[in-house]
Design goal:
- Chains A, B: One of its GO terms (molecular function) is transcription cis-regulatory region binding.
- Chains A, B: Keywords: DNA-binding, Transcription, Transcription regulation.
- Chains A, B: This is LacI family transcriptional regulator.
- 2 copies of one chain form a homodimer.
- The first copy, chain A, has 339 residues and is α/β, with parallel strands linked by helices.
- Chain A folds into 2 domains: 125 residues, Rossmann fold (3-Layer(aba) Sandwich), CATH 3.40.50; 131 residues, Response regulator (Rossmann fold).
- In chain A, strands 2-1-3-4-5-11 form a 6-stranded parallel sheet, sandwiched between helices.
- In chain A, helix 10 crosses helix 11.
- The model of chain A has no long low-confidence stretch (mean pLDDT 90).
- Chains A and B meet through helix 4, helix 5, strand 2, helix 6 and helix 7 of A and helix 4, helix 5, strand 2, helix 6 and helix 7 of B.
């Protein structure tokens, strides 16, 4: 319970010491006798006094806040990453403040400034794609940061991700091994260049390695939303026939399954659909969704640990790639007739 | 872009004025000549100086922050409420900081204290059920607050919700009008007493009004998660046969549909399943989910508007109940043979 009407004066009066003695105890700044210290601590307890953290922030330059800036809390992928971040932050005595940006640059910069102003001790930052404005901001800021799924050659900021090249390679190899020849891909346009390039390259090279041709008509952009997956899948299937479709995120894949079903395709008999992320809904969808599991909890936890390490002045790795895994469910099937 | 190395001294020097003049301009505290003011503003622009908001908070007692404390960002229901809150907050020049509590009392109190410490101007607060610790906290706090789905007779804090009694009455009447006799309900245990009491009472009275008997074996508690909906539905259906099932939230209803399907029931032919909330996933599930639509965006927007009104010293209503509506989809069906 907090009683914000009680001031440091009340504590000093009850403890029978000066205000500066109370201040020394609170800020652990200068030596105070054990006896006086105990009287102050007792008085703080009895009055329910809480030192004004905002004023303390000015003195101590430590807020015990870690900010977490994410594009979309409505996407369970980010919510799962937040969970890991929260647990580690709390374990180390930090409180996590969430900032939801919808990936809009203005909001991102506003939240970055707010975190700097409120003297957050650290920051976990996610966005679709790093822009020059982000890079400029981080170049000038002194806040300890870790990126998730973002990589910048210009900044000395560590990042956590998965090996996107290998993950997409596995997904395409899996679909090919199931007998699929015409494999489409709907991928998010607004993600980190390196990730994007890796995912597209993995797709093309996996096809090539199996003697399949690359057809740009079955590869298209698609945002991280059910609606986008639904609309883009209808467009793609109206234009070309594919026997398998990979979407680089699960929410879009759920929209894709709905679209395919509405168009008269049976999933997986007529078309295999595969997602990426493995959000909790995917196991419960009908049919349940085959997906690449990203270790979302660990990604949030490791990124936050790296922020805390930096705050403590410890060295951290420049890049940590965590293990993914392919989770096979009902939305994909082996085409025995097709091989 | 922010350059936190630039201080008020640099601005004063460039503008050729004293530090206190710069401070007066920034805080709009005492009159400054137009000419000096312009020089200061130009210098701020040229140096990229940003006044330390934390220090300003001490002077102005205004942070332009509204805190939003919610139980579970992984539930799209809350994410949708946040969206409305964000839009209104931004429209009025406030920044929304999100705090995710998992409904744990310790975390809730920690975030409440943090918001008070950081001198948030206002607060939108959600939790399952108000506890005496919450009430004690709010009795002592001076932060402008609006509750969503929470009602306290002891506190003079406004709340936004829907009319839960009428919403459940409509849902049960709808299922009865479809020819269902044995109607189960899985309801969340940990919600506000008033809401809970209203929902249960509505269920019982709707059955009674149609001459149906209340059977406590087909009413059970179920948390706000897919997993809980899945497990509790299996328990209920293993124990008793029902021809319709209402769950008081959509994520649980999605788990229920999966459970029923796995047990060999066809949804809706063998059992009608109905949710409550109308999250975005519900329209895309197969079968798509009949649900009570809660105006989530509006709930967040109106609650935030009420916080901002209070900050401005305006009078606000004690309680606002927003309109819900029944959205009929594929998971429920008329039992023509059964009437």
């Amino acid at each position: 319970m907090i009683n914000i009407k009680i001031t440091i004066k009340d504590v000093a009066k009850r403890a029978g010491v000066s205000i500066s003695t109370v201040s020394r105890v609170i800020n652990d700044s200068k030596p105070v006798s054990d006896e006086a210290k105990q009287r102050v601590l007792d008085a703080i307890k009895e009055t329910g006094y809480r030192p004004n953290q905002l004023a303390r922030g000015l003195v101590l330059r430590k807020s015990n806040i870690i900010g977490m800036i994410i594009p979309d809390i409505a996407n369970p992928y980010y919510a799962a990453i937040v969970e890991g971040a929260e647990e580690i932050a709390n374990m180390y005595g930090y409180t996590l403040l969430l900032c939801n940006t919808h990936g809009e640059l203005d909001k991102e910069i506003e939240y970055l400034n707010l975190m700097a102003d409120k003297q957050a001790d650290g920051l976990v930052f996610m966005t679709g794609k790093l822009k020059s404005e982000h890079v400029d901001w981080f170049k000038n800021a002194e806040i300890k940061t870790c990126f998730i799924n973002l990589y910048s050659r210009e900044l000395d900021i560590p990042m956590v991700s998965i090996d996107n090249y290998n993950a997409v390679t596995e997904a395409i190899n899996y679909l090919i091994s199931n007998g699929h020849v015409k494999i489409g891909m709907l991928y998010a346009p607004d993600v980190d260049d390196l990730l994007q390039e890796e995912r597209l390259r993995a797709y093309k090279e996996a096809l090539k390695n199996h003697g399949h041709e690359f057809d740009e008509d079955v590869v298209s952009e698609c945002r991280f939303s059910i609606e986008s997956g639904y609309v883009k899948t209808k467009e793609l299937l109206n234009n070309k026939k594919v026997d398998a479709l990979l979407l680089t995120n699960d929410v879009a894949a759920i929209g894709a399954m709905k679209a395919a079903t509405e168009m008269g395709y049976r999933v997986p008999e007529d078309i295999s659909i595969m997602g990426f992320d493995d959000i909790s809904f995917s196991a419960y969808y009908q049919p349940s969704l085959t997906s690449i599991n990203q270790p979302t909890y660990d990604m949030g936890a490791v990124a936050t640990r790296m922020v805390i390490k930096q705050i403590a002045g410890e060295q951290v790795e420049k890049m940590i790639l965590l293990p993914h895994k392919l989770v096979e469910r009902e939305s994909t099937v082996k085409m025995s007739n097709n091989i």
